[in-house]
Amino acid sequence: MDTNRPVALLVDDEKANLRLLSELLRQDMDIALAISGYQALDKACKLKPDLILLDVVMPELDGFETLKALQTNASTKDIPVIFVTGLDSAHDEEKGLRLGAKDYIAKPFSPEVVKARVNAQLEIIHQRQKLQQVSQELALADEAKSRFLANMSHEIRTPLTTVIGYAEAILAGEFREDEQQQALAAISQNGKHLLELLNDILDLAKIEDNRLEIEKLPVDLMGMLEEIRVLFADKALKKGLAFQLSPQFPLPSQIITDPTRLKQILVNLVGNAIKFTEKGFVQIRISCEPRTLIFEVKDSGIGIAKEQQTLLFDAFTQAEASVNRLHGGTGLGLAISKDLALKLGGDISLLSEKGQGSCFIFHMNLHEGPDNQWLTTIPLSPQKISQQHAGKSKVSKLSGRVLLADDYNEGRELVCRMLQTLGVQVTQVSDGAQLLEKSLAEHFDLILTDINMPVMNGAEALRLLRSAGIDTPVIALTANAMTHDVESYLQQGFAGHLAKPIVRDHFFRLMQQFLLPEEQGEKPPLQSSKEMIALKARFISSLPARLDAIKQAIQQQDLPQLQQAAHTLKGAAALFEQATLTQLAKSMENVTDFKAAGELYAALMAASKQLH
Amino acid sequence: MDKNHSSFTVLVVDDDADVRAFLRSTLRNLFQCNVIESHSPEQAVLLYEKQHIDLVFLDIQMPGMDGLTLLQELRALHKNIKIVMISAHGTADNVKKAVSEGAVGFIVKPFNMQRIKAVVEKFI
User: Fold this and answer.
1) E strand residue ranges, A437-532
2) How far apart are the first and last CA of chain A?
3) Within 10 A of A295 (CB to CB), how many other CB atoms are there?
4) Taking the alpha carbons of A354, A358, A364, A366 in that order, is the dihedral positive or negative?
5) CA distances from B63 to A220, A565, B41, B70, B86 (A)
6) Parent domain of B48
7) Rounded to whole angstroms, what are the CA distances from A20 to A16, A31, A216?
8) What is the mean pLDDT of chain A?
9) A575: chain B residues, CB-CB within 8 Å
10) What local confidence, expressed as pLDDT, does residue B5 receive?
11) What is the mean pLDDT of chain B?
12) CB contact under 8 A, B18 and A535
């Protein structure tokens, strides 16, 4: 029997009718026959037909009674029934439908009408089944997501408990100096773990949404392997593990792939191997088939039982394993790596037995780079990488003035410290309006700003800054680290982007791009021309008249006049960098009673006499 | 900065003679351009209509008519007029208003030479 074809049970005590109906319908469905009500009940139970065509007038058990009996049985009660009968009174039709029949066809029937009505019923059945299936799938997916969320919030809560617990204990002064160091290390470690978790969740979400962008760049294969070696050699050594790269030549020197993602996969596989191996070795074997590159990461670790091997790559089940916290890592790494491998045109598989070590095999499509050469031995260029590595830890001093805007005090303070470490001068503000005002009034070499801030956001501040004719480069500091967000920041005119939490290396590298090294020092002071000196002398000689105007305004108790006179004095005094006069004039501009104004006037007179 | 800068003219509108004098000498020194001064909004409108002026420096706070209103009026009369606002009050609010009214720059007092230089070079 074809399982996809619907099954119809035809019930009639007249064999001729059965023959006629089955001739009519057999083309579209499989047919079962019954010549009495009792037989129909029996066959319905056994066959579970999709549809029953039921005669009404039959000896012993008539159609109405048969339908009632079908409805009392749980396994048959949902099977749709169509009456096909010689009883054609409206009363009988009504009775049939009231009993729950789906349709009622009177004999003699037209073959086309029967076909159409039966097909209509089948269509409905089919749709209902499809809906049930979809809703079941949705329920399963929903359940999986809920379980995932529940697991994740647990996974997030646990390190947070440590962070908050230690931080509060330190604040409360419960720790001695040496204990504090330990607590701080734990806070830092748990914070990093949370970040790792968040990045993994974002990665998963991107992969699920198909938003993960895969780059295609020429990559130096041996360089990439050397990076992996540098990254893990120490760790392996500390655990007393033999760590071995064994390239099986010939291998391509240059391949086309996404270096970030390839590295992510290798880091995950090698990291796991070292993590779960207490003694023995970890080996990376790289080999090549005509169109495939194969990385085998083999260890002598704890191994993985057969029944767990498939679950290993499933984000939802992996996330619950508390073993991850014990060993570090989020448990999402393998699921992500597998998805990434698929994206790179490959896959990851696993050979392992419990207690016998594991071998993860990652293969990917091999595309040769434009400058590819086939290598038969390891090329001599490992210095480059170790130099890069050494350069990372040393932070060279920079100079310049940086304006830093963020409404989140702790976060801003942290960035401020990082900037001060570099030797630059930092001015801090907490919203876009202050950013704008500060950068109008003073010169900065670089502005770092958060995007979401009260009063005025970072993007608006940048727009106004540019409209005001100020070209200071501005870098966005934000937690929205999706690639398309970054692109939109660059389009809006931001000179760069730093994702929070800030990665130190990335931060220092970006600062080096925008700020000059310390040696180059300050820019020369502004010109001080003869004319400037003349102008300043003219200003000083104009002071008596200016003060006179203020005095008159006070005497006449003319507040607008007083404010205007004070305002122009303030502007001119500031122009010639007369701080005291500027400050006094500013206070004068804001006075509300004339007694205070009188006192300020005296102070102004005194200050102006100091000038020559 | 090459070319013949004496071919452009800047109008400085400020009620304070010292500020005007400072801008005049700075602009002349930097660009060898013509500088016309005006102490009042009314005079500024007349001057702009009579003479060919490439760029206007306009103070925000002046007696009579404030600079933002004058900015609005001048922009209504001359669609392509280029106005740089100057003010001792570099508040975000003032900048917002000035930019939305079509100012092409905003400079605060006390002046910074480089800012003046940058803003002029942008539009001349």
Assistant:
1) 446-450, 474-478, 496-499, 516-517
2) 113
3) 23
4) negative
5) 70, 10, 9, 12, 15
6) 5-123
7) 6, 12, 66
8) 83
9) 18-19, 22, 109-111
10) 47
11) 87
12) yes
Task: Give me the interface pTM, i.e. the ipTM.
Answer: 0.83
A559 touches chain B (CB under 8 A): no
**CA distances (Å), origin A145, targets A159, A336, A467:** 22, 16, 47
* Tokens linked to A320: 């619950």
B85, closest residue in chain A (CA to CA): A468
Single pTM value for the model: 0.46
Nearest to B84 among A469, A542, A574 (CB): A469
A10: tokens are 């035809």
Q: Where are the alpha helices (DSSP H) in A344-408?
A: 382-393
Q: Which of A86-90, A253-257, A571-575 tops mean pLDDT?
A: A253-257
Question: Is A368 within 8 Å of A252 (Cβ atoms)?
Answer: yes
Question: How close does chain B come to A593, measured CA to CA in Å?
Answer: 21
**Which residues of chain A does B88 touch, with a Cβ-Cβ cutoff of 8 Å?**
567, 570-571, 574
Q: Can you tell me whether residue A427 is helix, strand or coil?
A: strand
Å between B7 CA and nearest CA of chain A? 22
Residue A524 CA to residue A547 CA, distance in Å, equals 35
Set of chain B residues whose Cβ sits within 8 Å of the Cβ of A458: none
* Neighbour-count burial for A379-407, b at 16+ CB within 10 Å, e otherwise: eeeeeebeeeeeeeeebeebbbbbbbbbb
Q: Is A469 close to B19, i.e. CB distance below 8 A?
A: no
pLDDT at A236 over 80: yes
- pLDDT confidence band for A109 (50 / 70 / 90): confident
A575/B109 Cβ within 8 A: yes
How many Å separate Cα A482 from the centre of its chain? 6
Residue with tokens 């006499």: A609
Closest to A61 in 3D by CA, of A37, A81, A78, A84: A37
Give the least confident one: A167-176, A181-190, A324-333, A362-371: A324-333
pLDDT of residue A262: 92
For chain A, list the domains and their CATH numbers: 7-109 (3.40.50.2300), 132-208 (1.10.287.130), 217-380 (3.30.565.10), 395-520 (3.40.50.2300), 530-609 (no CATH)
8 A C-beta contact, residue B86 and residue B43: no
**Which residue, chain included where needed, has tokens 């054609």?**
A88
What mean pLDDT do residues A7-25 have? 90
Of A164, A163, A167, nearest to A189 by C-alpha is A163
Q: A251: closest CA among A366, A343, A136?
A: A366
Domain count, chain B: 1
Place of tokens 């409209």: A467
Q: Which residues of A201-227 are buried (b: 16+ CB within 10 A; e: fewer)?
A: bebbebbeeeebeeeeebbbbbbbbbb
**Chain B touched by A523 (CB under 8 Å):** no
Give contacts of A568 with chain B, Cβ < 8 Å: 15-16, 19
Distance from CA of B64 to the nearest CA of A (A): 11
Cα separation of B100 and B68, whole Å? 10
